[in-house]
Each structure stands twice: as structure tokens, then as C-alpha cells.
Amino acid sequence: MVYKPQQFHETSPEVETEFPPAAVLEGSVSDALATAGGIDATRVTVTASGSVVTLAGSVLQEAEVARAEEVARSIPGVTEVRNNLGASVASTAVNDARSL
What is the DSSP string of the chain? Predict the structure, then answer.
């Protein structure tokens, strides 16, 4: 048997990383949002492009929008946060129900 090194059109194959840096950053921010107090992040999506993180979706109250951005900025490696979160219309109904 003759051993030949792997070649693809006369160049060595490129090995892709299993977890690209953007995916690791997205996971870190998502985990932080899930465990942070003061945020219901069940309807929040996190995407990363380089070191820029985008938050999208909705939260229940306006205060959670600012809190989510604060948590995302605290993650090492995040240089910018694009906050596209909105407060749900149901937040007024939740506040009305709590006052009863």
C-alpha cells in the first residue's frame, strides 16, 4: 500500500474549526442573557458578525431592553451591540394584572 498525503486539486485541504468564533460569542451572550436577572430572554435571538452582536426579538418590558444590552456588552469579545429588541404589547397587560 502506498501512502499519499491528502490533496485537493494539488493543495492541502483546509480544516474548518468546529466552533467558529462568532458561534462561541453568540453562545456566551445567549447563556449570559438566560442567566441574568431582570430579563425574560425566551424570545431573544443573538447573532454575531465578528465582534458585533445583534439582539433581536421582544421582551416584556422596556427596562429589559436596556438590561439585555448591558448584559451583552459585559461579555468579553463584544465590541458593539446592535439592539433591535422591542417591548411586547403585553407588558401593559402584565402590569395591569400585577396591580390587582
Answer: -------BTTBPPPPPPSS-HHHHHHHHHHHHHHHSTT--GGGEEEEEETTEEEEEEEESSHHHHHHHHHHHHTSTT--EEEEEEEE-THHHHHHHHHT-
Domain 21-98 in CATH 3.30.1340: yes
Is residue 53 within a helix (H) or strand (E), and if so which, with residue range? Answer: strand 52-59
pLDDT of 26 > 90? The answer is yes
Query: Taking the domains of the chain in order of start, what are their residue ranges?
Result: 21-98
Q: What are phi and psi of 2, to 5 degrees?
A: -105, 130
The pTM for the full model equals: 0.70
